[in-house]
Amino acid sequence: MDEGHLQSANAPRIPTFDNCMRWFGYTATVFLYEFIGTFFLVCGIIATKGNPIGIGLTLFFLLLLGGPVTGAHYNPAVSVGVLINNSWSVKRLIQFFNMLAA
Hints:
Blueprint: H1 3-9, H2 17-24, H3 26-47, H4 52-70, H5 76-84, H6 90-101
């Protein structure tokens, strides 16, 4: 067997954060995490039928999962606050809002 075949056989089957960063790039990885988090937040709101405790727990777990990677801006007002704090550019904010609207 050649070396390339051995490396591909030992490659992890589940993509890690480092692999996602290498495959997609930083911006795409952040948008993917935010899209998935927003999807699960909406599903949590629908599944709990508006129960505030259920929504809060859903948001809590999403913040635990997505917070270290993306900052977890599931509320667009948080993104505007980051823009005002000069941590983001207007271009990135527009891209982010387009991603949330999708």
